[in-house]
Amino acid sequence: MNDPKNGMTLIVKTVTRVTVWLIVLYGIYLILHGHLTPGGGFGGGVILALAFLNIMLAYGRDATQKWLNIKFLEDIEAVSATLFLFMGILGIALGGRFLMNFLPKGTPHALFSAGTIPILNILIGIKVAMSLFLVVWVLAGLHEEEGGKK
Question: Mean pLDDT of all residues in the chain?
Fold first, then answer.
């Protein structure tokens, strides 16, 4: 992973190793507190995707591919979309409308106070993070051969 031929300089790699966890933590915070503060699934998902992209930019695509299972990320992306649809169908089955809240609301301004909204924020965050990262991953691989075809 520390191959000097791949990626950027040692300074950038070291800073990335330290800061990527702060970026992930902030993305998770935005997703989990999206029903209480500005943020939510989309914003937090974009931040999580940026953490993955930061690693890819610092270490290079080949080094990232050695430790990152792209097929697994594709599976996570598909499962999150399926679970979001399942939550919508549960809303129809238990509440009468698509994405209807069927969980108790709880105490206002508490972390678990919004019924199904935090669950939907988590699913959207995962979906957005994986989708954005995978789009950039595919686009980054197109330059490998002349004409952009792989």
Answer: 88
